[in-house]
Design a protein that fits this description.
The complex is a heterodimer of chains A (131) and B (560). With 131 residues, chain A is mainly alpha-helical. Chain A has a domain at 45-129: Cytochrome Bc1 Complex, Chain D, domain 2 (Orthogonal Bundle), CATH 1.10.760. Chain A has four helices and two strands. The two termini of chain A are 17 Å apart. Chain B has one domain: 8 Propeller (Methanol Dehydrogenase, Chain A), CATH 2.140.10. In chain B, the strands form ten sheets. A five-stranded mixed sheet of chain B has the order 1-32-33-34-35, with no helix packed on it. A four-stranded antiparallel sheet of chain B has the order 2-38-37-36, with no helix packed on it. In chain B, strand 19 and strand 20 (319-325) form a beta hairpin. Classes of the chains: A mainly alpha (131), B mainly beta (560). The interface between A and B is large, with 34 and 45 residues.
Chain lengths: 131, 560
Amino acid sequence: MTQETSRTTVAGRLTITALVMAFAMISAAPSTATATDTPIVAPSFDLTDPARIAVGKKRFNKTCAGYCHGSDGVGGRAPDFKGRTDLPDEEAYRTIFHGRRTSDIMPPWGEAFTPDQIWELVAYIKFLGTQ
Amino acid sequence: MTASRKMFRLSAALLAGSALSFLTAAPAMAQGKAGFEDPNNWPEYHRTSNAWRFSPLNQVTRENVKKLKVAWVHQPGNITHGLQATPIVIDGVMYSISANNNVWAIDAATGKTLWNYAPKLDKIVDQVFYGAASRGVTVGRGKVFLGTLDGRFIALDQKTGKELWSTQLTAPKTQYGALFSAPPQLAGNVLFGGTTGGDQPIAGKIYAVNADTGKPAWTFDVIKNDPKSWPGDSGKVGGGSAWMPGTYDAKTDTIYIGTSNAAPDYYNYDRKGDNLYTASLLAIEGKTGKLKWHRQEVPNDSWDYDSAYEALVVQKDGKDVIVHLNKGGFVFVMDKKDGALENVWQFSENVNWVKGIDPKTGALIDPIYPEVDKVKTFCPNLLGARSWNHGAYNPGTGLWYSHAMEVCNEVVAGKDDPDNLKAVSALSLGIESIKLVAPPNSKPHGRLDARDPLTGKVKWSIKYDMPPLSSVLTTAGGLVFTGDLEGKIFGYDADTGKELWSFNSGSGLRGGPVSYSVKGKQYIVFPTGLGSHAPGFLAGAFPQIKDLPGGAALIAFTLE
């Protein structure tokens, strides 16, 4: 996949996501915690940019890997990121933004990181998927 | 059911409990002796103030433990972060807590819910790192007390579960979600407790309120106001929270409570000093909050080793001593009166951050510190020689039963990026990277050790593929109870460690098993349901943890 088509695909998916989110706003009162009123902002860079992947890796190692996802995304209660190819970009973004609660807890990072900082993490997770 | 009917049933249960108490399972030794008080109940977190987690009941024995059958199961409905509590049981009523600070009063003989209280929590709780979980409630003065996920102490009416008072103590939005995961404890008419925060860039405090009114009584600053101990502004983000329940000696009005590591955890460059009173055991006057004495076990803690665990009290040469495990893999034995050191012994098989600790002075011998740009392996790992799951002491065998884990971590220290500290859930780990690894020359594993608490001499030891995270219970029936990460519950012979009974509960154990008696019948209850961040972190060394199911159920057993 070329960089151009990759970005177009991401942008297309994001539009649908934004629509879904707009609908969710009508049907349920948003909370600050789930931040459903915050649309996904598209990345300002190519998710395969090695420099951005490196920045994402650094942030991942300093935060996410500390307790939760393990070094190189191997470990933790979530599926390993290394070699994982079934995680859509926007789903990764949304999960980082909103966090998730099942039997375990991932706290939300949406109010702390800028969209591009989250996309850098997504870029690194995508990179791990190719390893 | 109406409130009045609920109350009637509760009163009837209480009456029945007290009227029939003389028929209950005979305690092994005379009442009144330390550790044997109130034998039919589990009235406080560790049952008694000496933190033994020992039940004097002896109806269930080595001979008949095989006949234990399920009496009832209580399911709170929400499994987020499992069940981490140690239930309290008084006169036939169990008080416990589940996800999101849901408090339950339960008929301890049938499992029937008598009342349930669900606090309205601030939305901030959806953003905190240590979400959903609570390790118990405290019962006394006709009230049930809890610490909340949004930084409050709350008192409920013991009979009805109605809220009596609520006091906001922390500012979760500016204190990185500082919350009470441990139940606040009673010291006379004072209710005290510390927050999460050993790994957050805050200054740890211990809070105390009047237990009857909720009015603030005193606050103890874990971060000592001393520039030698904390250069510059380092103390403002120095961590040091007291995140486990303390214990209270009513005779001397003394609170014993341990404190956490200093922060940033691994990056000590801005806090060159001993960082008092982090990684210390504190003796505090209950009435005033004044420090009586302290013993710092890990000065300038740069490994996330804490000293927050239980202060076990046993006798040595006719005097009371405190036996105190820390995450760094050592047990400190000290005079209960003044903290004078009696001994230090090594608990972990794998310790490499120091060559040892001087048993006479407590001084660290040749500590190795984390550094920036260098990968260094430290044993134990940041979850410690053991997680917070408490040990138990049996006066019949003279043995202390405690789980252990042998796992190390590779760490590169690094200054925290301010961008990463904007989230309420942010941790100030002070790392560039961290990775769990096996100990040198062995596989990572867990254990249950039966040891002499004063010397560490091992009587028996059981090895597990994955480290159990359940607290331990021991009884006068000569038994030791615990459970593993897969949900298997075990009853062992307290003398030999021989497995005498087991039961598969289906989800791992993280709380504290208890034993009590109602209408002459001994019950043993296990909180089941895997939770907390620890299993997730351990999955780095034990990949099989990834597939373990969550859950949340109190399971009660009694003889047929």
